[in-house]
């Protein structure tokens, strides 16, 4: 009996494990801004995705058997297979440089959207056709097979990276997070993106006030007092798959607190809140690294990029860079007591 003919329960179990690893590393890749950590996580994510390609011949045999006899969840299985093809295809396209946008949609957006839907379908599939691990699954032979699949996935990933480098494709210039450069030192070329359902508000700078709250005090600061001279060169790395290096000018958060409400005597974290209700929480000790920017590359911020002021959070992904900041508040709650990703 050939190796393909023996494909079955363990193939499905292997695919479930690979999908779980791919989803986990994908979520981590969105969260991590540090280049060294991101490089490892993104490589792991790419290898996990290409392991699905390695398992395709075995899964094809399993699928052919399933299509010959009606079973519950067959439609879900077919839809999941199509989504996996889309996920792997758009991931490779993004890695090689065909990032888009195409018809207003990027390869990364399709990749992430398909992954979210596939995760839901995979949960349904597992519920309908539960794959129960067995003690025999943890054996020397199983570990050797798993190592072979992982090694083949790593070879495919290395071949993809080498192809991009040898052919001088745009993908060879990706950042460690996998993002492509868009608009460095030219803010007009930076894409205007929002997180999920957030939106671009219309704010009149002349009537704008930033509320600063700490140590029982609350001060409303006019826009004229926020146009500081502190300059930070930082990378805005968007989870949409692009990054831009810019000089951001404004006022550091520790200086803002000191000149408005005084150095906080209590509190462990800083809540930065947008006029739209979007918010992120940072450790208070990071205040010296955070900047409230009113200018980028020597020009005032545009509405789409956060005017009148936005937060600049070096070494954090773009969803931490709160736009259209309305309030800065020192709170006693720990900074990690918040959703890892905003809910809106």
General description of the model:
- There is one protein chain.
- The chain is of the alpha+beta class.
- It folds into two domains: 9-180, no CATH class; 187-331, Sulfite Oxidase, Chain A, domain 2.
- The protein contains seven helices and eleven strands.
- Strands 1, 4, 5, 8, 9 and 10 form a six-stranded mixed sheet that branches.
- Strand 8 (291-296) and strand 9 form a beta hairpin.
- It starts with 8 loop residues before the first helix and ends in a 13-residue tail after the last strand.
Q: What are the defining features of this structure?
A:
alpha+beta; 344 residues; Sulfite Oxidase, Chain A, domain 2; five-stranded mixed β-sheet
Provide the β-strand percentage band: 15-25%
By secondary-structure content and strand pairing, the structural class works out as: alpha+beta
Name the shape in a single word.
Answer: elongated
Helix fraction?
A: 25-40%
**Main sheet record:** 6 strands, mixed
Number of domains: 2
Mean pLDDT: 88
Q: Radius of gyration, Cα only, in angstroms?
A: 24 Å
Task: Break the fold down into its secondary structure elements and pairings.
Blueprint: H1 9-31, H2 35-54, H3 56-68, H4 74-96, H5 107-128, H6 140-166, E1 180-181, E2 209-214, E3 217-222, E4 230-238, E5 242-252, H7 253-260, E6 269-274, E7 279-283, E8 291-296, E9 299-300, E10 310-312, E11 325-331
Parallel strand pairs: 1-5, 2-11
Antiparallel strand pairs: 2-3, 4-5, 5-8, 6-7, 6-11, 8-9, 8-10
Helix pairs in contact: 1-2, 2-4, 2-6, 4-5
Short structural description:
The chain has 344 residues and is an alpha+beta fold.
